[in-house]
Amino acid sequence: MYIKKEIENMLTKGMKTLYINGIDNIVGMDDDDITKIVDTSIIQKCTVIRIIGFSMDPNADEFKEWEPWEKLINTILDKTNVMCVFEFDSKYVESFLETGLAEKDNLVPVVNVNLPYNNQLGYNAVIKIADNQNQNTNPGTWCHQLHDLKSLESFTHWNAFNQNPLL
Question: What one-character DSSP code corresponds to residue 164?
Answer without folding.
Answer: S
